[in-house]
Amino acid sequence: MALELTDANFEELVLKSDKPVLVDFWAEWCGPCRVIGPIVNEIADDYKDRVIVGKLDVDNNPGVSNKYGIRNIPTILFFKNGQVADKQVGAVPKGNLVNKVEALL
Question: Count of domains in the chain?
Fold first, then answer.
């Protein structure tokens, strides 16, 4: 299961992580977000020892969302060493996300 990320814990859990991090920027009212949500949770389970996977609700956490220029959701940012290493906008098949995660390992 993906971690719940917030403006308050983002720096500690994402930017200071020694593991690659996948962050799903989403909102409750977003249809495509509901489609990709279970896929993100599967990836969290599949890579639980190697990758941090989190979800950040853009409506409740405008600070991080604005900092990274999130304009469309779902947007998934992939972090490595505290920096954005890759990005995916929109709902895509699990394989697309897995390929991006594997590239970070």
Answer: 1
- pLDDT score at 1: 92
Close Cβ partners of 54 (under 8 Å, ≥ 6 residues apart): 2, 3, 4, 5, 13, 14, 21, 22, 23, 24
CATH number, domain of 12, equals 3.40.30.10
Residues annotated as part of the active site: 30, 33
Contact 98, 78 (CB under 8 A): no
User: What pLDDT was estimated at residue 49?
Assistant: 93
CB 20 within 8 A of CB 83: no
pLDDT digits (tens, 9 = 90+) for 58-93: 999 999 999 999 999 999 999 999 999 999 999 999
- Identify which of 101, 103, 83, 104 has the alpha carbon closest to the alpha carbon of residue 43: 101
